[in-house]
Amino acid sequence: MSTESANNLKDVDAQNVPAPVEVPAPGNDIDVAAQENYFNRELSQLQFNYRVLKQALDTTHPLLNRLMFCCIFSSNMDEFFEIRVAGLRQQIKYGRETLGSDGMMPEQVLGEISRVAHEYIREQYDIINNVLIPEMEQENIHFVRRREWTEAQAEWVRRYFDEEILPVVSPIGLDPSHPFPRLVNKSLNFIVELDGKDAFGRETGMAIVPAPRSLPRLVRLPDDVCNGGDNLVFLSSMIHAHTDELFPGMEVKGCYQFRLTRNADLELEDDLEDLASALRGELLSRRFGDGVRLEVADNCPEELVHFLLREFGLTDRDLYKVHGPVNLTRLMAVGGLVDRQDLTYSGFSPSIPRQIRIKESMFDAIRKRPLLLLHPYENFSPVVDLLRQAAKDPQVLAIRQTLYRTGADSEIVEALMDAARRGKEVTAIIELRARFSEAENLELASRLQEAGVIVVYGVVGYKTHAKMILIVRREEGKLRRYVHLGTGNYHAGNARLYTDYSYMTCDESIGDDVNKLFQQLTGMGKALKIKKLFHSPFTLHTRLLGLVEREAELGPKGRIIFKFNALTERELIKALYRASQAGVQIDLIIRGICCLRPEVPGLSDNIRVRSIIGRFLEHTRVYYFGNDGRTEVYGSSADGMERNLLSRVETAFPIEDPALIARVREDLDTYLADNCQSWVLQPDGSYIQNQPAEGEDRLASQLVLLERLTGK
């Protein structure tokens, strides 16, 4: 990196990143497969979480959105422990340790995760306690602690406890007939020290109080017991204040909150006879998997802490003592409890392209030319309108769609049900194993089936992650296929928060390809020949590698831009290394995990990696190849990960219209020009945040796109 570029970057606190990795010495004989040329997947994911946390300190974001970033960090860390840490522990437990591309064994990775995660979480609580809460106090938003309650507030809390908490709370004394309870994953609990004997003469000395899951963790105090402003109180504070009422006649010597994170990954056999039934059974076990992390109040006595660790089979490495609530994710409720629009992002109206506005029929608009929408800047409603019109159109004969995540009140689902009730052939391929949406998808499948939709659960062993809609319509005595292909889910809520492309076309070859893919998913038989789409697990990986190698053959004339959520697949990384060694200029816009080491002399001199973190979650997947002036651009549902390229059903679709190709390149160039929301990956594995050079204007890519596409 040039001195000028380095001066434009702001360093990340070195103690809060994984230990720097030694950069290979320059040389022409560098082995692209050598372990030192790869970053660890889990540690890279941790660094992404940290970049999210750092947004809480960025005062260009509104205050309540900064709080939201802090909460998102907590949610991300929860899933990281539930899935990634749990997976590493399972490898060790069952003697199935595997060496990562970086050469680290699971035990080594867990040790480094513990070191880094403890640093990050300490910083998170420092941000909450010493930055965000004081700033909210200045804005007259108060988290009222027990010691601060006025007499009127204390009386209101007492009534709330008696009327709302006491009837549903179930304290559990620990004795031979009451063993340690099975606590639900991530639930709020209290360990209580007691003195004295109960009504039966028992003297246990200890009890567990699970906080009722039906109650909010944060409650707004009524204005009539406060002196202005927004005043919030934690459920944990109310339970702390009245714990003695749960144990009448006994002395409560101490009450301390804790929270256990469990393994929440689902393990299903490949030879299932009934996937839905098996999944329903597994969902019950998710709540009670093996413990992987214990969070406990930092004032909890050591003997109680070690008692809990023994009960959950954990060690000090898995212990996180926190100075504040054990579940900061619950602070997401603040936005709904206070009406402070001045402290959040201003709203905007996603635009609708003129091509759609001037046509009453989506079919007419798509026939004129293919459509490309970039959500959330451009409205998701045309996708919904396409299905609604198809449901009512007597010329439409059949609709097929994949569903990965949709949301509880999905207009798309309503349109599919309407189409089925009107007698059209409607098929929905629902991926039951969409992580943490399994229960919702089971319910969705039942609703669709009741309406007459044919529901298929995809292919066991291969998650259906492709985003496809196929509509068959009779026009002038012939059948025409209309297609929607996307980089994101059919979830209207996500479409307001995630950046994703929607591509709509009636191209005959693409329509035929999509039809064949649906045939493969719903029927059985050999893989069919596909003309334009790449699809995993069959052709996507090999075709992607082939396109990278084609650019490598062009040498310095080659050009590659990839936009992924993650890059971990070893063969793709090796191909990119070889392309860089051949002189190809490569820019990778990777939001999260990146195992590729950029800008290493002799290995990846020509590869630059940046991560964009901002108001919206970057989710678009784009493959751009210069091809010596004959540019090829693909949108895709697939990231550069093993699971996407080798063991899922994914699609990559060509964007062939010259105007749309130019539009995608303009979008990519906007990301590459970002000098304040982008973080640049260094050869040693650290990330440095871009900053405008002296005299240079700030260029935040998401704000540029927002203004370009919505005028806001």
Automatic annotation (TrEMBL):
Organism: Marinobacter vulgaris
Role of this protein: Catalyzes the reversible transfer of the terminal phosphate of ATP to form a long-chain polyphosphate (polyP).
Entry keyword Signal: no
PTM statement from Swiss-Prot or TrEMBL: An intermediate of this reaction is the autophosphorylated ppk in which a phosphate is covalently linked to a histidine residue through a N-P bond.
Keyword Secreted attributed: no
Designated name of the protein: Polyphosphate kinase
GO function term, MF aspect, one: ATP binding
InterPro entries found in the cross-reference section: PP_kinase (IPR003414), PP_kinase_C_1 (IPR041108), PP_kinase_middle (IPR024953), PP_kinase_middle_dom_sf (IPR036830), PPK_C_dom2 (IPR025200), PPK_N_dom (IPR025198), PPK_N_dom_sf (IPR036832)
Entry similarity comment: Belongs to the polyphosphate kinase 1 (PPK1) family.
